[in-house]
Amino acid sequence: MNGQDIVNYVKPHIGHDWLAISLDGSAFDSSQFRVLMEAVDDKFWMMMKPYLRDVLQHNWDSFALPPLVPVEDILENLMRSLMNNQNFVFVHAPGVYSPAWPKEVRKRFYRDIDESIGWKDKDPEEDWFFLQLDGTTFSGHSTKTTLGNTIRTLLYAWYYQICAGLQTPWENKSVFTIASGDDCVIFVAPHLADVLMTTIKSLTTRNTEP
Asked: pTM of the entire structure?
């Protein structure tokens, strides 16, 4: 959708005198904790699993010769990848020799770090150390950055509206929410604007710098 498409979609759902509350998720990616991703992203992918299987099966059936790997094995590998909420950050620190790394960490290092940086023919423990992060959305991630962030942002907005006393927010004709990634706008009728804004301020952290 381009900008005009979004305008055309939103306008029929809001009144001419409605107010817009813009929520910009400052430091949003770094505050996506593992427990939140498991509650939101993992649940979404478990709901999608039967449809993913149908897509895989359809592709498998189109091959003249069936692949050697069963569809169920591919599906489980895909689900593990989609529901992986652990991240590794590799830091180049010349002169540092870290303890032996687990096999899986070494494998990720060789996959993620370009040889030109200088590790070729050397153990990664020489001049490198790693940090393991549970949660956190890295920019450009194939599913968590846009899709995952959008779903979680919408759930934040839903929670704010519930706390403000708006029952069944997605069906309430006095409020309309739209989101993309960590950006969200809640359009609200004037008679609900003050209570919703007060509730959002009480539940969120704002920049206190002058």
From this structure: 0.69
